[in-house]
Amino acid sequence: MATTIKGLAQSQAKLDGSSLRVAIVHARWNKSVIDALIAGAILKLKESGVKESNIVVESVPGSFELPLAVSRVIAGSHIQQASNETDLLGGLNFSPSAALPKPISRSSTPAPIVPGSSQAFDAVIAIGVLIKGSTMHFEYICDSVSHALMKIQVDTGVPVIFGVLTALTDDQALERAGLGRGEKKGHNHGEDWGLAAVEMGLHVRRWAQGKFS
Q: EC number(s) (predicted)?
């Protein structure tokens, strides 16, 4: 029986993603494959301890739109975090007039916040499916999206997991989503991307604290 050396080697460390917040941004082209990949990623995120409330899923029309969407989602999560931190102060006013006695009121008391639900994203999984056609369209999109997503993670410091399948045929795409039409169903790469998001999210947190294995 033929063997292969391809595939993600499992991390030796136990991955605990319970403190992480992860976004999945996906295209809608080739929906049946996309849906399977998303399901695979979410399965592994949850198995690694990421709370369902900390998994955010956003969609865009196609893979070419992924870089802009990922960039804006990361920026938006930082705005959420900053807003949450301000709310936790209870609307404190540090101007001189704030020293004057005021009637006690609870009208400005912030509503309870779900822990972690407004924290900045620790990782983003970008999912798309590109299948080669009869024109150069495939090559242009693959190249542009790949470079743009890499630039985003380097510029922001937030891991962007490259979940864009670049398949030459329909069958290649199906097998990489575990949907193979023949006896060989293939492997759902979305599961690998979910695990990679947790591992990289934890790594970046640790590295930011100056801790190395």
A: 2.5.1.78
Compute the distance between CA of residue 131 and CA of residue 26 in angstroms, rounded to an integer: 15
Distance (Å) of CA 99 to CA 96, 102, 141, 209: 6, 9, 59, 38
Residue 173 near residue 131 (C-beta atoms within 8 A): yes
DSSP 158-197: --EEEEEEEESSHHHHHHTBT--SSS----BHHHHHHHHH
Return the structure tokens found at 45. 């995120």
Determine which one of 137, 147, 187, 203 is catalytic.
Answer: 137
Strand partners, 57: 24
Distances (CA, A) of 65 to 25, 55, 58, 122, 156: 10, 20, 12, 21, 18
Structure tokens at 97: 């007039």
Q: Catalytic annotation on 187?
A: no
At 128, list the tokens.
């798309």
Beta bridge partners of 125: 24, 161
Q: How far apart are CA 6 and CA 208, in angstroms?
A: 31
Assess whether pLDDT exceeds 70 at residue 97.
no
**pLDDT tens digit sequence for 131-162:** 999 999 999 999 999 999 999 999 999 999 99
